Amino acid sequence: MDKPQEAAIAIYEELDAACEDYDPRAAEVVARVARMITSRLDGVTVEHIGSTSVPGCAGKGVVDLMVLYPPGKLEQAKALLDAIGFQRQRTRDPFPEERPMRTGAIKHDNKTFRLHAHVIAADSDEAAGLRRFRDLLRADAPVRADYIALKQAIIESGVTDTLDYSNAKDEFIKGILSG
């Protein structure tokens, strides 16, 4: 009898909020995971977003991906992520299934990288805004430094809940995107 094949994506471990140094291996992780996804579903693309996509930017240490699907392919994108081992969120306030986020982990270069796969319509304003914020952080060192300082201050204030940590950054992000 054949042994069942292990899922490509491992179980996500919820950890306390943190502000970790940039790890350039995150880009390699994204390339691996993107291949797993795009090779299985036509029309879906994957982009690296969040702090791990910005060289020199400290962050929560979770690799954020935008899994961008074309019109009519949301259900197929969710099913694919589930099939390769991603899990539904287990936090107190998960993203809705109309705009889901899946979690997972993958071992790479002797480190386990936690993953957030944001499943977003390719032509959405949200996808454009996430790209804009990422690209601004990459291009503007003073804004990047302010963002890192904010995240460090949030952690130093005693915030350990990841949702509270994310919410504490919202005003900064909205301000940058509206400016």
Q: TL;DR of this structure?
A:
The chain is α+β, with helices and mostly antiparallel strands.
Shape, please?
Answer: globular
Secondary structure class reads alpha+beta
Number of structural domains: 1
CATH fold category name: Beta Polymerase, domain 2
Give the neighbour order of strands across the main sheet.
1-2-5-4-3
Radius of gyration: 16 Å
As a percent range, the share of strand residues is 15-25%
Helix content: 40-55%
* Shape-level CATH architecture: 2-Layer Sandwich
Indicate the multimeric state: single chain
Number of helices: 5
CATH superfamily: Beta Polymerase, domain 2
Major sheet characteristics:
5 strands, mixed
Order of helices and strands: HEEHEEEHHH
The CATH class name reads: Alpha Beta
Characterize the structure shown.
The protein is α+β, with helices and mostly antiparallel strands. It has one domain: 2-Layer Sandwich (Beta Polymerase, domain 2), CATH 3.30.460.10. Helices cover 40% and strands 19% of the residues. The protein has a five-stranded mixed β-sheet with strand order 1-2-5-4-3, sandwiched between helices. The longest helix is centred in the last third of the chain and has 17 residues, at 162-178. The protein is globular. The chain starts with 24 loop residues before the first helix and ends with a helix.
